[in-house]
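Whether sequence alone determines local backbone shape is best considered at the level of individual chains. When preparing material for the folding task, we compiled for one chain both its residues and its backbone structure tokens. No coordinates are needed to read the tokens, only the vocabulary itself. For completeness, the protein is quoted in full, as a sequence line and a line of structure tokens:
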Amino acid sequence: MKWLRRSLYFVGGLLVLAIVVGAGGYLWLRTSLPQTTGSIAVQRLGAKAEIVRDGDGVVTIRAQSEADAFYALGFAHAQDRLFQMDMMRRLGAGRLSEVVGAATVNTDKMMRILGLYRLAEASLAKLPNDMRVTMEAYAAGVNAFLDTRSGSLPPEFALLGYTPEKWRPADSLVWGRLMALQLSGNWSEELLRYRLAARLTPAQLNELWPAPPGDELGIPQAQKPDDHAGLAPSLPEVLRGRGASNNFVVAGSRSATGKPLLANDPHLGLSAPIQWYLVRIETPTLTLAGVTAPGAPMLIIGHNGRVAWSFVTTQSDTQDLFLEKLLPGDPTSYLAPAGPLAFETRNEIIKVDGADDVAFTVRRSRHGPILSDAPALAWSDRTQVLSLAWPGLDADDGTAAALYRMNRAHSAEELLTAAEGFGSPMQNILYADTQGHIGFIAPGRMPMRKKLNAASQMPAPGWTGDYDWTGYQPVDTLPQTVDPKEGWIATANNDIRPVDYSRFLSGRWEPPYRYDRIAELIEATPQQTPDTLAAIQLDDKSVAAEEILPTLLDAIAPDASPDSPATRASILLKAWDFRMARDRPEPLIFTAWMAELDKAILGDKLGDLFEDYASWNLLDGARLVGPLESPWCDDTRTPEIETCKTQINRAWHAALDKLAAAYGRNPADWRWGDAHQARFSHPMFDRIPILRDLVHDPIATDGDDTTVNVASPRVDFDSVVYPDVHGAGLRAIFDLADLDGSRFIIAGGQSGNPLSAHYRDFVARWRDGRTIELEGKGEEVLTLVPSTP
């Protein structure tokens, strides 16, 4: 037995060694947490600056000049969010593969084709002098952290095995270009509708996705659309153009405080860390409080003690795809109205960790870059290519400078003047000032087209010139209002055009469910308070379900058994108050039923395009069967002709069978929160099973895609689990009677380091609607002092 004893000693020794090494590694990685007290001597700082942190890790910066304040902000951002910042600039520059490897080559190719980082570099020279000073000070602050840090880098750098480069001002500007890309999603919608045109008749396409009569296809009738021209799965979410948000403001006449109240909750993908970072900045000339984006030296949403502002994406159509017909026999040229033109070209080289460099040529037509050269677009047509026209590709885009000026506006009038400089993305800006003014403007570069093609919802022929742009709409022609007589304004990605507005903004808007509910709740309370606005932000009533459900319930055939899951579920739905509450079964039953109905109505017609379309259009099956007499109800894959009632009942029982298998046979025990949980995806840790489970603790959430409290579920149609993947990463409420008492919460935490206590310490408070104030208080003070020569 001596051999057994020796073996046990050996195994025990290995286990002890593994524990020691693991503990040592953990202790080493903990040195990546920031220094939050004491002092650090740094170069290029004018005078000492303080970084004060409270118990939540929220930062207040105090400095004697604006330049020093943004220097300190760069230092604090790098302390808490360095990996997030580095991934952002690498994504924008098309340089992910240098550290990630071959998995991101397609993404890098797309970003090189768009050339966002080149544009960021080019726009530096056009910045106002004072803004350039701020950008350089911020970059110097980031680099001061890199120069003075000790210990480990954050865990992601250790896993990937690289050290970040020094920060450059262009790295900050590329953030705005990426945000514009994410919030300008028309190009991907045009591509999807183009693919659908290959599967559906013009009448079907126009009913599913309406366009003006007579222009249903929007492409030459003899030309077959490419139904394989889809977005490859490797394309990151930031490039897919999914954005939503709410903002609403009430005048002092409708406010219990006698001054305006402003609320904003921008909706983006739920990630770890979240896109936002809370901060308060105090200098002798400037006070700012709100959220920044790590990597950018300005307040994105917040107040400056005089004015508060908020953003919602307009959903305007500022992008067009053009089909460029290649010159027969000469792929280097394409057809244009005045004759063939040669593509503009440039050569790009992508360095790939662990693999050979990838060299390729970027082409550009007179409309814009050729997107179909990217492998992420599975483009098979060899007679034409696809180009993108978009104001976000303008070298002289003024959005960053406009936001910089908004930060420093002394009144609503000054803020409005600054906002008029916006280029891309086009935004719904609601604002209010301490003098009692409220207002709205949707600024940005809105293209004017010679002619619309399918309400600008399909790629247009580029060779004719008929659909070319002729310029941008003047700012004074864009929707805007100041101090409306109603005493309130709200936007929720809805149609913002006034009744008599004739200019084109978009051919497709979000359904008005959220806007209608916000309007109802504002009108229901004559005197609003911060608490009532907070309640509106958390409202989880589904106006969509209230509209859809009665017709569907009337179509259900009664079950013979009074105790069957079908009978019990129908009783629950008939008594439902339409709230998508996490502790109730009705939202889960409704969502599963809608998913099965979508499959029954659209699955046969859309084929492998079904999930691309239906994932974000979950209620279209119910919409199409609304009259209960619709040709959509017949399943073309079966010999019999199905009626709408047949499909409604089949979907009902299919949903209940899946729910019973997953959650038990008693519908009263089912819970929306068991299926609908926010996880907060991480770009690296989600790929590593053990780490994924360690750093992410899912939390059950209320709401869905149509509620004011947006919590969009990801629907894969094969399961009855609906992760909450998209929602209010920030909630803010500004009381212009007491701006220092403004309320904030972000989804996650201040730190991007999973070893930090502030990595996700806001999550439960965010879910439950609790907030904090940026009062400038804190227990930990880190002082940055100028180093002596």
Observations:
- The longest strand covers residues 261-269.
- Residues 2-30 form the longest helix (29 residues).
- Residues 2-22 have pLDDT under 50 and may be disordered.
- The domain at 186-239+320-389 is CATH 2.30.120.10 (Penicillin G acylase, beta-roll domain).
